[in-house]
Amino acid sequence: EGTPDEEITALIDEEPGIAVLVLGAGTDKKGPGPLVTSIAGKLSGKFPIPITVVPGNLTEEQIDALS
């Protein structure tokens, strides 16, 4: 229960093994999506772990090449 950004933050606080948060950005003209906007935007300076935002238009091959 709660907002997605609050729940993700709570989970990260509870699980010390989570070292980075990876978010997929939407490709809509309205922006990257509410979760990316909230966490990578408003909360980024206060977030307890690094945040990686992956462009939403990457192919599976491009994503594999990043790993």
Q: Descriptors for this entry?
A:
67 residues, alpha+beta, two-stranded parallel sheet, globular
Q: Order of strands side by side in the largest beta sheet? A: 1-2
Shape: globular
The count of DSSP E runs of length 2 or more, i.e. the number of strands, is: 2
User: What is the tally of helical segments?
Assistant: 3
The amount of beta strand, in percent, is: 5-15%
CA-CA gap between termini: 32 Å
The major β-sheet equals: 2 strands, parallel
Using only C-alpha atoms, the radius of gyration works out to: 13 Å
- State the helical fraction: 40-55%
Instruction: Note the run of SSEs as H and E.
Output: HEHEH
Structural class of the secondary elements?
Answer: alpha+beta
Commentary on this structure:
This protein has 67 residues and is α+β, with helices and mostly antiparallel strands. The protein is built from three helices and two strands, in the order H-E-H-E-H. The longest helix is centred in the first third of the chain and has 11 residues, at 4-14. The chain is globular and about 35 Å long.
Describe the secondary structure blueprint for this structure.
Elements: H1 4-14, E1 21-24, H2 34-42, E2 51-54, H3 60-66
Parallel strand pairs: 1-2
Task: Summarize, please.
With 67 residues, the protein is an alpha+beta fold. It is built from three helices and two strands; from the N terminus they run H-E-H-E-H. It has a two-stranded parallel sheet.
